[in-house]
Amino acid sequence: MVISNKPLRFILATFVACLPITSFANPETDSTKVQTEVTHEAVAEGHHEGAHAEPTDVKSKIKGFINHHVLDSHDFTFTQDDVTGKHYGFSLPVILWDNGLHIFSSAKFEHGHAVAESDGSYYKINHHDGKIYRTDASGTITEDEKTGHPTNVRPLDFSITKTVVSILAAALLMFLLFSSLARSYAKNGGIASGAGRIFEPIVIYVRDEIAIPNIGVKHYKKYMSYLLTIFFFILFLNLFGLTPLGINATGNLTITFSLAILTFLVTNFTANKDYWGHIFWMPGVPKLMRIVLAPIELLGIFIKPFSLMIRLYANIFAGHIVLMSIIGLMFIFKSWIGSSLSFGLSFVLSILEILVAFLQAYIFTMLSALYFGSAVQEHGHEEAHV
Questions:
Q1: C-alpha span between 281 and 292 (Å, rounded)
Q2: Using only C-alpha atoms, what is the Rg of the chain?
Q3: Which of 129, 190, 206, 373 sits CB 3.0–4.6 Å from 215 for a disulfide?
Q4: What pTM does this model have?
């Protein structure tokens, strides 16, 4: 019996696209019953947190769910029982430095509802920003009246969060895939085999269509390791964000900032003297204009990585917000027509998000290669005499 490839590909694409639609990671942490109890307890005890009890109406619940999805978390929650409030998932280790090292399981926080005690110190997760603050035994977090930011001491947090887990998983996956590809080359005389055959065309594409055209044949090899690493790292993190695990690594500004800083450092530490000469004393223009252009060109050195950071962050973050919002409309419409339309639109956007995952990895890698090319470009000496 022969099965056509086209239906098989359609079924596979449908399954992948439906993954974010069926996402059940990090569901809303409070049922109506639990919220009511928490609110009454906080009011009775006079805690400031009572004023920030989570709302129970559908729209506010959806908004809270979306905010919780895009933020990092100290645990993975797959599902929960709304009646008992029990969560099903697993906790991650919390590692704090606060007058000494504190290591304990995030299960002590009970998904943000309890105060964790470690060696006589008390800590609690702030619901607004997801950060851990030092508190008293009652878990009181005070806020500045003008800014609304917590005034409690915030310890240095080295915890293994969802984002850290996804980064380690992407790194391990890349190591296994490409070490396998390298072994297959050595074993089969330069011919890829196994899973490496899927990624070999992408590696060749990065080399022939991104590295060589933007950097040049002479210098591209010394940047290939970085370009391949950054491309597949961003790609895998983007794809992880479309799974039901609720991971939003590349929609985290600190992650995109770190990636942009790496490109910034590689660009400027490998640049030749012509690169710096064109920044501080641009040839071919009047001397007075050189003085004017020098600070502008110097500012451009920092604008380039900033644009890399914002572009990746904004596209991935906005994609998560839009997709989760449209899924939330199913619970607002409460009709088969509205829910069907929301489901269909979510399906289309899920397909689009897969494209965006590849596209953003390509754009970041391509722009990095472009910056590297400008840093090692060799200019003719005649420019200095123009």
A1: 10
A2: 25
A3: 373
A4: 0.77
